[in-house]
Every structure is written in structure tokens, then in C-alpha cells.
Amino acid sequence: MKIIVDAMGGDNAPQAPVRGALAAAKEYDIDVVLVGRGDAILSVLEQDGIHDLPPRVEIAHADQVVEMCDNPATAFREKKDSSLTVGLTMLRDGGGDAFVSAGSTGALLSAATLLVKRVKGIRRAALAPVVPTGKGGAILIDCGANAECTPEYLLQFAFMGSYYAERVLGCPEPRVGLLNIGAEESKGTALQKEVLPLLKKAGEEGRINFVGNVEAREAVEGAVDVIVCDGYSGNIFLKTMEGTGLFMARELKKMFKKNLLTKLAALLVSGGLRDFKKLLDAGEVGGTALVGISRPVIKAHGSSDDYAVKNAIRQAVQFASSGIIEDITENVEHMRLPAGLRRAAHDGESAGEN
Q1: Average pLDDT in the chain
Q2: CA-wise closest residue to 218 among 280, 133, 130
Q3: For residue range 173-204, what is the model confidence (pLDDT) as tens digits?
Q4: Least crowded by CB within 10 Å, which of 8, 48, 95, 210?
Q5: What is the separation of C-alpha 338 from the centre of its chain, rounded to a whole number of angstroms?
Q6: Per-residue three-class SS string for 120-160
Q7: pTM metric for this prediction
Q8: Hey, what domains does the chain have and what are their CATH numbers?
Q9: Rounded to whole angstroms, what are the CA distances from 175 to 155, 160, 165, 268, 328?
């Protein structure tokens, strides 16, 4: 398997992508293509005492870099020789099995959608991170790619999230829940009320294991394996979880440093504290899958270090070998609205864009 890595993307590029890719090539027994400025990549290798390109690692030169200040919708077109554009073009043309980048999320989403393309019939790609829950973890789909959604988008997110949970997380018959402010069917905005019967119908037909509305509190406790939501709500949910985790970790640290007795207590529970910190560490997961694109694309966190990049590449390997894209392709007709409803939704969507 060959993974294409954006060596110039992220806050810690090129050091983190290059070192993470080398570690991944060795640990996961894969081929890696580092896309970016060749001299910068070779400089990192020399800093680490590596004078010859390691086996199974190659460089694809790209002069330009998509910066965070660039317009995400047009950057990949304006910088045709950027590591992002060159890497995704390689993926599209069969030069690798997956693409990993810690660069701009908006630019990656735009470039992947327009260069690599979505699976035919999928209306929007979605960002689907794995979030920690009381029962291990759940797929949150969408977490920010689509701030405004239609019922059809959410219906497709539910299917795609279910396939992802089953194939990548190894969760049989994953429980799918619609994020809402209450479990009652009358709760939510027009979007939640309109998509609920569509999800119930998919559940009754046995296509997904839909369990109904789920509140954020129950979702965190592990009530579902797939949390379906629009990108606006999903991003707030994700950032709130991240902030709460950081707050709790900081308060626990202060508590254990209070006096000699609490410091001794900290020693006794140090293993558990390490596990707790690991649970909340985004670097352990590595990245977020861009689900709905016709080839595997993984977005690593912008601040990823080499360990996080290595884990993002591991996730790319899992995604590429999972069969999830084939699942989506084969079942896309079941994710579409009836013709009449689809026309009405399309008219409403078009009106909103004008």
C-alpha cells in the first residue's frame, strides 16, 4: 500500500510530516510518498542523520505551499504546484491509495471535492472524527465541513457514518443517533424534524440501526456509535468536548499538586491518569476521515507532531483497506430522497444560494 503525505501541511511542517511518515513506513510496512519542497524534506532527513532516502520512501517535488491565510476555495487552483494540489492529483490518478494532510481544512475539502471528486450520488462529503465516549468511541458526522445541511445530507451522513463505524472501528450493527436537544420526536429545528422520518424508514428497512434522537449528554456517555448532525452543531459538540477535556485535565493536575498527600495519591493513580490523558489526546486517533470522497483522504490536526502524523497514516491505511468507499458506492441509491422530495429540496437549496 502507498500513502501520499503532504509534507508541507500543518504548523510543524515539514519536520512532523516527514518524521511521522518515515516512522509509519517502517511500522506499518507501507510505501510513502512525501509531497513538497524536496530540499526542505531532505534537510529534515539530514538533521536526523539520514543521508540516503530510506527504502519505501519517495519524494514528489512541489514548489508551492497552501498557507492558512489563502482562500480555501481557490488556493488549490491558484497554487497548482502546491503540495496539496500535487498530492491530491496523484491520488486521483492512481499514484497512491490514500492522502494525508495537516494543512488547511477548507482548502483540503475544496480540493478533494473538485479534484478527486465525491462518490457519484453523494451530495456532500463530511468530516467524521472518532470522539471518545463512555463506551470507547463514536463517529461524529459531520463536524464542520457543512455548516448548513438538508435532510438528504444528514440521511447520507447516517449511512456513511454507519459504514465507517462498522468497517473501520469494527463495530457490528452500529447504533445511529440523530443529535438533538431531546429524545422526543417533536424536538429540534425543522432540519431534525424533517430528517427523522427518513432515518426511521432506513432503520425499519434494516439498512442502518437507527435508534432515534440522542442528546449530547447521552452521546458522550456512549448511547450511540454514530452521532449524526449538521456541521455547525457537530463542530460545537466537538470543540465543547475538547475544551471540557482540557479543563478537567488541568483541574485534576491542580488538585493532585495541592499538598504532599495529594501528590502521593497522584503516584498511586498515575497509570489511570495517563490512560485518561491518552483518551483525550487527538494525536492518538491521528486524523479525521473525509467521508464521501471517491478516494481515501485523511485530515490530520493542524498542530500534529510526528506521532500524530504517524497515527493519521495508520488511519489512512485502515480506511483504504476497509471497503467503506465500495459500501457507499453500492448503496448510494438507498441514501437518496424520493424524486419529488429531492426536487423540492434542490429548489430550496438553490433558492438559499441565490
Answers
A1: 90
A2: 133
A3: 999 999 999 999 999 999 999 999 999 999 99
A4: 48
A5: 29
A6: CCCCCCEEECEECCCCCCEEEECCCCCCCCCHHHHHHHHHH
A7: 0.89
A8: 1-117+293-322 (3.40.718.10), 125-285+323-354 (3.40.718.10)
A9: 14, 13, 9, 37, 18
